[in-house]
Amino acid sequence: MTETVSGSAARRGKGGRKGLKVERIFTTPGVHPYDEMRWERRDVVMTNWRDGSVNFEQRGVEFPDFWSLNAVNIVTSKYFRGAVGTPQREWSLKQLVDRVVRMYTETGLREGYFASEEDAEIFDHELKYALVHQLFSFNSPVWFNVGTKSPQQVSACFILSVDDTMESILDWYKEEGVIFKGGSGAGLNLSRIRSSKELLSSGGTASGPVSFMRGADASAGTIKSGGATRRAAKMVVLDVDHPDVAEFIETKAREEDKIRALRDAGFDMDLGGKDIGSVQYQNANNSVRVSDEFMHAVEADGDFGLRARMTGEVVETVKAKELFRLMAKAAWECADPGIQYDDTINAWHTNPETGRITASNPCSEYMSLDNSSCNLASINLLKFLTDSGTFDVARFVKLTELIITAMDVSITFADFPTEKIAETTRDYRQLGIGYANLGALLMASGHAYDSEGGRSLAAAITSLMTGVAYRRSAEISAVVGPYAGYARNAEGHKRVMRKHAAANDEIRTLDTVDKAVHAAATKQWQECLKLGEKHGYRNAQASLLAPTGTIGLMMDCDTTGIEPDLALVKFKKLVGGGSMQIVNQTVPRALDTLGYQQEQIEAIVEFIGEHGHVVDAPGLRPEHYEVFDCAMGERAISPMGHVRMMAATQPFLSGAISKTVNMPEQATIEDIEKVYFEGWKLGLKALAIYRDNCKVGQPLSAAGKKEEPKAEAPVETRPVRRRLPKQRPATVTRFSVAGAEGYMTASSYPDDGLGEVFLKLGKQGSTLAGVMDAFSMAISISLQYGVPLETWVEKFTNMRFEPAGMTDDPDIRMATSVMDYIFRRLALDHLPYDERAALGIFTADERAMQANGEDPGAQPAEDEVDHETLAQSAEISRPAPAPSREAHSSMEVIESRQGRTADAPLCLTCGTKMRPAGSCYVCEGCGSTSGCS
């Protein structure tokens, strides 16, 4: 399906018009960029920490010496092509970059983009330098596909369309499946489909869009994404005036209720569990597309009409505020639906004559025409912060030019999953340049994320990036012509350019750093408008802010997309197999910028390393605390702080922003209403929230529903207490849950069976110690009266309260409370395997056997093993602290610091706790994502 620029355009570029002149900015004439750095060989061995199995191994790979172990592992395992162990397998970063850049350079030269072969060579060298030095990265499909024998798909984001016909609906299922199979994601708007309140031409009642969502969800859950174990990435949008909008809003919240009911009945409803497949609508993000008319009705507490799809007549009138609250309530319960602001989106649409923007990609940053795609690239902003604390405008401008040129060339050679998408993308040539490491840049430069200074600098950088991108687009248009749909939309496109330039004029700068960036942005917009008026534009869209999950790790970024730092302490893998928790390097850099002396910096960093936050750090002035505020932790940025940052940058983006506004568990429905309403007032295009612990399914192992014993005829009995003898076997277990230490003494009857438990937690004589003593006596007496231990385990496991988090027990790495830990430990020590399996409680060895396809239950019966052997086995199963108890990702570091379990899922590839990346999640261990990037 590959197709080049039209012949006439190519001929104009080669003959009738001069090609682009490319300047050197990073490289040296006569010196290949690879020769200006040290390269070294490394071994990549990636294991699953849960069972020690090797997920991936390739030895002797070649990378620059400044690349981190994590970046090397991810690029080697994700992006190197060829079968492992064969001569065809790529083994050097040079091979990977050469494979990709060669295609860009050869195509650009052939199609008339460059003024001479010398310019093409400079382009080649500059692109290689930028990629190898982690200044930017293309999105993952480029690394997967470009330069291979596979289709040259370069886009990660797709928007589809569906009409009110069965043929179109079935085409939707098929097209989504093809896209998921290729490892990408898609979104679409279902509002053209008749509601369940409308009639068919045959006289029957329409099924409605929500019913058709079931089939698409089942298809996505089966295919998954890229044939991998993660879920497919998809977005489903419905207009707020659709008669089925209330059903759509509550769809996932109702399923969440189903999950709770099935879980409580004993079914395995964890993420990836064997029974979770019965739950519907879990493979998509849902968003309601609201209009200004609706939001004004909410503001005025007025009525709002829901309209028939075929005739446009009002079929039902509702209270706008009640419908808006229904959205907030559903989001409070399960994080869906998000919200998209239709009139704002289309007010910034460069192609209004072609059609409206009705949907987005799964992560909500790409918004364009139906049946279109966007290829993305992201700049590592921290690379442009100089040692003196200024932003390197000149190099940033040149890099942006380089990236836009390369991205436009890629559309020329790219393949697409369907002909409709190919046609639209070639005609409108949508690009999505963005950035990562904004949060790290702001902290390192001494700016608080939630501050006027931070927002001013972010706005200026974003404006500069988009201004340069469109200016370069106009220059490319002068060489090879504007996009095919430009003439039809010229006035609309130029109107949006003027809106961007006007927004740039509204930026209020506060210091010399953002003043310099803003001055450069103003100059770029002036040149952009002048060149665009003369030559038109090569690209309908130019910029957006993507999640930058895997590619953010490839660039060794501390923060993804527009996000602030996750926390001040993070997990770092070491060459040689070790790991450690370190304070982010942006912290000492920020302290230096703020004027602290080296001795003060060392003391503050040491304090942060011990406590995980800056409150009461020695010598740190309280007015500087805000600089170190993060997404999570002691001083978490408020939800509106995230919204305000989005609002600061949105006017300078062609698309939107992939970001989820995290809210604390105690947030109310009214809080969510406020966020959604303020997002509209501040001019955002889309917004999604996540309230901590609102989801039920967690990525833990669990067994299925146990069989209930058959009922017997009731017999009147009186329980008899069976006391323990004065001398009885006992075990003492020292434990730690999220740093809270305690001791548990468990005594058994000589002929087996637990009969007594004593717990010591808290200081002697304290209220807590007294309560635990009373609790211990109550449990012990109940056991002696015949209450089965299994009953207590059922009641107390999964109980949630503080302290909760990491334990020092290799069999029980995480506990939701001290009670959860105690009764899991008692179950492991005193219940047979079959009973524990029904409760979903396994030892580390048993989980390892399950992962290897073995049956832990196929062990010698208990009466075939003597008690001495059992005692020895117990000692082996609980060794001194081992690596398996340590954190394996930054999210697990945060959990251990906060003493609670984060909602982020475990990576289904390597078992590592994933971290947020925009509205998706990314695994620091292997680079897998839960989204489309």
TrEMBL record:
Positions of the Ribonucleotide reductase large subunit C-terminal domain: 155-690
Boundaries of every Ribonucleotide reductase class II vitamin B12-dependent N-terminal domain copy? 44-134
Q: Which reaction does it catalyse?
A: a 2'-deoxyribonucleoside 5'-diphosphate + [thioredoxin]-disulfide + H2O = a ribonucleoside 5'-diphosphate + [thioredoxin]-dithiol
Skewed-composition ranges (Basic and acidic residues):
885-898
Q: Where are the transmembrane segments?
A: none
Q: Which cofactors are named for this entry?
A: adenosylcob(III)alamin
- The highest taxon in the source lineage is Bacteria
MF annotations from Gene Ontology: cobalamin binding; cobalt ion binding; nucleotide binding; ribonucleoside-diphosphate reductase activity, thioredoxin disulfide as acceptor
For this UniProt record, give its keywords in alphabetical order, as a comma-separated list: Cobalamin, Cobalt, Disulfide bond, DNA synthesis, Nucleotide-binding, Oxidoreductase
Report if keyword Transport is assigned: no
Q: Does the keyword Nucleotide-binding apply?
A: yes
Annotated region (Disordered) at: 851-898
- TSCPD domain residues are 726-828
One matching Pfam family: Ribonuc_red_lgC
The biological process GO terms on file are: DNA biosynthetic process
Which Enzyme Commission number(s) are listed?
Answer: 1.17.4.1
Q: What task does this protein carry out? A: Catalyzes the reduction of ribonucleotides to deoxyribonucleotides. May function to provide a pool of deoxyribonucleotide precursors for DNA repair during oxygen limitation and/or for immediate growth after restoration of oxygen.
Q: Which family does it belong to?
A: Belongs to the ribonucleoside diphosphate reductase class-2 family.
- Matches recorded under PANTHER family: RIBONUCLEOSIDE-DIPHOSPHATE REDUCTASE (PTHR43371:SF1), VITAMIN B12-DEPENDENT RIBONUCLEOTIDE REDUCTASE (PTHR43371)
This protein's name: Vitamin B12-dependent ribonucleotide reductase
What's the source species for this entry? Answer: Actinomadura litoris
> What's the source species' lineage?
Bacteria, Bacillati, Actinomycetota, Actinomycetes, Streptosporangiales
